[in-house]
TrEMBL record:
Domain CBS as annotated: residue spans: 6-53, 73-118
InterPro entries documented for this protein: CBS_dom, CBS_dom_sf
Organism annotation: Flavobacterium saliperosum S13
Name the record gives this protein: CBS domain-containing protein
Pfam family for this entry, one: CBS
Amino acid sequence: MTEITEYINKEVNPICIEDSVEVAQDLFLEFPYSHFPVLEEGVYIGCASADDVELLDSDRKIGEFRYTFERFFVRNSTNWLDVLEVFAKNETNVIPVLDETNAYIGYYEMADIIKCFHETPFLKEDGGVLVVEKAVKDYKMSEITQIVESNGARLLGLFISYSDLEKVQVTVKLSLGGMNEVIQTFRRYNYEIISEHQEDAYLNNLKDRSDYLDKYLNI
């Protein structure tokens, strides 16, 4: 997997606090960014939003509107999963990157980080995806892993895809082969199978019996 820091972009210079609003407006017209970093004497002070900048007086300096800036960023040591979280929380497609001394380095673009995600085994390797559900108080990640591996499958990744106060759903990706055995073991451990699978012998058997019953009743 490519190191995420290789995706740090410096192609477009950050907006300067002394720049006119028109400069920022031109930038957002040229590039499809939702936000862009603003520096004051080389120090990052926040991100200007394309939606806000569009409504400002083009003759005034962008620094006059610093109260509108959104102050989110990541560091060059932040892992790709946490970077994705910052993208989601701030509804942005650009995130400034700072080093450990808070110096501005560049920015990440959402499209590049998605490429990084696509290089992980979770998406890149062939496998089956299974969604299981259990009560919050009863499920264990270690148990899910044990169920997969005890049936000879290889775990490629898993994450919590839904949760509330009562239940949690976990999306699991595993190597091809042995899917039916894994599904049946999850059921024995009282997990509900949310996703549908052709390999599910239990449901296939129920369907066959239902079809047989329908034929019998229609005689």
